[in-house]
Amino acid sequence: MPASGNARYEDLRQRLAGSPRVWLITGVAGFIGSNLLSDLLSLGQTVIGLDNFSTGHRSNIADVVTATGAASRFRMIEGDTRDIDACRSACEGVDFVLHQAALGSVPRSIHDPLTSSHVNVDGLMNVLFAAHGAGVKRVVYASSSSVYGDSPNLPQVEARTGRLLSPYAATKAANEMYADVFQRTYGIETIGLRYFNVFGPRQDPNGAYAAVIPRWIAALLRGEACRIFGDGKTSRDFCYIANVIQANLLAATAGSEATGACYNIACGDSTSLTALFYLIRDGLAKFDSSVSSAEPHYEPFRPGDINQSFANISKANAAFGYEPSHRIREGMDATLAWYIAQAASQVG
Is 322 a catalytic residue? Predict the structure, then answer.
């Protein structure tokens, strides 16, 4: 990832490169997990990956290992966080755990709440329990902006949440409660990162539960219509993957006073879905003029979706120096370039 301009973060990266640690990434074959893997290997770290490949892709791992040339510092464990023995094996000798494994998607959780709960809640509990038994210092885990539910307060501040709107949101709220209890009961340090609509390279555009940005990019490149659920005024705080990597590394290595809490990880901006569509369309038109006249197709609102998403990120800045390196436009430029390159390589 490029330099962030954040002196505290750049100093941390230099220190990690000079004094490598051992990291466990759960969900390592997924979008966020594979990007974390790439960055940590590029910094000379040793990484253990745990994934059952239910939603992640083996090709993500292969691409990262090939690009970094760091196969000797990476050990892959094919397993499920619902399996306590797999979690115990993965946590052996680990300094920091970055827990990304989950079943995302609000619609998926509405369709199948039981599996979402088993994976997201039981999975985190197993990781926490195994990490405690292995003497791991800290677990940084992925929470979600979905915990804000129907809260009308904008920007969203960590201490004020509303009624949860989906089973997925409930699993993430449960994660935060269990992590807090585990720290107070067992002494293992925990930090929750409330991700706000993360996007970037390697995000899967396929499947019924694909995130909006990769799904729209793929649809436009195929000449298909992009669906907006609602009137297009629904807004999101879109956060580029480099910001999430920064947050994970800073949170893992912050002082103990930062632990036992959750933090918004976003840009502190808000973009409507209609504005997002035109940002993507106009960016792609620089590479493919055939998309320049595309227009979105509006459909009814979906149950469980939050109406507005806009984060206050001052708490993460104060606690461990988080400062977004990429706003949505810079992140989108890098993202579109990656998807265009992927499309070209498949044609070739």
Answer: no
Number of domains in the chain: 1
Averaged pLDDT score across all residues of the chain: 94
107 lies in a domain?
yes
User: Which among 263, 139, 240 has a CA at the least distance from the CA of 194?
Assistant: 263
pLDDT of residue 38: 98
Q: Residue 155's CB: how many other CB atoms inside 10 A?
A: 17
The pTM of this model reads 0.95
Q: What is the pLDDT of residue 342?
A: 86
DSSP 209-273: T--HHHHHHHHHHTTPPPEEESSS--EE--EEHHHHHHHHHHHHHS-GGG-SEEEEES-S--EEH
List phi, psi (to 5°) of 173: -65, -40
Q: Phi and psi at residue 265, in whole multiples of 5°?
A: -120, 105
Instruction: Tell me the C-alpha distance between 147 and 141, whole Å.
Output: 14
Q: How far apart are CA 223 and CA 104, in angstroms?
A: 27
Per cent of the chain over pLDDT 90 is: 86
The pLDDT, as a whole number, for residue 36 is 98
Structural domain boundaries enclosing 268: 7-347
Instruction: For residue 31, give the nearest of 86, 101, 95 by alpha carbon.
Output: 101
* Residue with more model confidence, 207 or 340: 340
DSSP 208: T
| 266/241 Cα distance (integer angstroms) | 10
Domain assignment present for residue 2? The answer is: no
Q: Is residue 1 in a domain? A: no
Pair type for strands 239-240 and 198-199: parallel
**Is residue 241, in this structure, part of any structural domain at all?**
yes
Q: What is the CATH number of the domain that holds 343?
A: 3.40.50.720
The pLDDT, as a whole number, for residue 308 is 84
Active-site residue among 9, 141, 148, 168?
168
